Each structure stands twice: as C-alpha cells, then as structure tokens.
Write the structure tokens for this entry.
Amino acid sequence: MDGAGNQTLISHFVLLGLFTRSPLHLLLFSLIMAMFLVALSGNGLMVLLIHMDSRLHSPMYFFLRWLSLMDLMLVSTIMPRMAVDFLLGGSSISFTGCGLQILFFLTLLGDECFLLAFMAYDRYVAISKPLRYSAVMSRWVCWLMVAGSWLFGLVDGLIQAVFTLTFPFCSSREIDHFFCEVPAVLKLACADTSLYESMIYVCCVMMLLLPFSVISASYLRILVAVLHMHSVEGRKKAFATCSSHMVVVSLFYGAAMITYIRPQAYHSSKQDKVVSAFYTMVTPMLNPLIYSLRNKEVTGALKKLLGRCPCGREQG
C-alpha cells in the first residue's frame, strides 16, 4: 500500500497524553490544573491592570500586555483539551484539529520569540538613550513591532502545519504526546522526513537564535550603560526591570531550544513531554508573577484596583 493511500485513511490521531490514570498522576494533574488557573488569572489580571491604569501605558507595559495575552492564548490552546481528555478518558483528535493545534501553538511560540526580543530592545533604548526614548519607541513603532511578531509567528506556524500534515501517515495513529507537536507527529509519517526535519531545524534556529541574539546584544549594551550610571537608585531600578525580563527569556528560550534545536537523535518522548509542559504551562504561569512581584508600578496598580473594590473599601 502506498503512502498516499495510507494518508487517506487517517481521519484522526490518538494523543497518549502526559498522564495515566494512577493516583500519583491524578495528583500531578490536579497540580497542573492549579497552574493553569494561576496562569489564566495572573495573565488576565496583568492585562486588566495595564488597560485600566494610565501609569502603565508606556511602551514597556504595552509589550507586557501583549505577552500576557499570548500566554493566555497559549495555555488555552493546550490545557483545556488535555484536561478534557484526562477526565473523560478520550484522547482522539481530528486530523484538522491536530493541524489547527500545530498552527496556533507555533504561531504563539513564534510571536513570543520576537516579542521578547522587542521588549529587550525597548529596555535598551530606555536605559541607554533615555532622551530619544519617546521618539524611537513611538506608539506607531510599538504597534509595528507587535504586528511583525504576529506575522513572523503566523508564517512559521502555517508553513510547519501545512507541510507536517501533507506527509503520508502509516496505520499507527498514536502520538506519544499530550498535544500535536511537530516532532511527535512526524514520527508517524511513512515517508522520509529527514529533509523536512533539516528545514525545520534551520527555521527554528532562525526563529530562536535571531531574536535571542538581539536580546543578548541589547542586554550587553544595557549592562555597559548601567555600570556607567552615577545614580545608585537608577542602577537598582534598571537591574530590577532587566533581571525580571532575563529570567523570563531564560525560561522560555531554554525550553524551546531544547525541543527545537537539539538534534532528533537526542530526543525521547518522555523528555519532550516534560520540556513541552514547561514552556506551555510553567512559563505562562510564572511570567506575570515575575513581572509583578519585582515591579512597584504593577503592585501599585494592583493596590489601586483593590481599593476600588467594595470589599477593599469595607476592609479599609
């Protein structure tokens, strides 16, 4: 039977998931659901605070609001489906649904790659060229950067989703993962995927290393500028803002590079699932916590919002 014939038989895939139905995995599932709720509430609150408080309408918070929106969409693309599969015992996903999941996931992943680079450039301009900051980081430029992030992410997502699902698939439909991630789906292909995997590798190197190079160069320049500052208070504020961003960058890029840049020979299903869980669940949960806990403006906006609530006034 040829590959094309096999491909027409595939109407759905079976996701093997992250857990089995053991007591230990039930506990881990509960923990992950708690992380999902924290990610939803934390990122949702961040979007609300930045929208409502006029003090948070600077370019830095403009990008941070988009980062929170992307994290909201990222966890919503993966987590609800995984939860339903675990609770109801089903694990089937349609061929089209798998393609859409690849598209949405890679689009959002690419968006964040470039958005984090633009956020680093924003901090570089703010600290190294404060007198030109308003002119360089105008509202138009900020919107252009966000639109560019979405465009690069969408193009990457479309290319990988379409090409991945054009391969003929064999009789096995079981994807050893908790969502349709490209490396896991390609393992089911009947045809030789080595050329395509090489293209994906080059594409991922560009999507990850190019923004990461911009981030590294920006923070190197920032470090030089901070070390030349005479104000101790200015140094502390610059380090606090930049260190928060560097933690987020390290968590996100570290996990993504392990998955997409590491040679295929070094991949194992169990490791891939753990790493994927990290940047689809842990990072979106930590981002609002990292940015809010070390940011006086965000905590001030939160106190102001709580002060508006009837419950907050009654307690005061």
Notes: The radius of gyration is 22 Å. DSSP finds twelve helices and three strands in the chain. The longest strand covers residues 12-15.
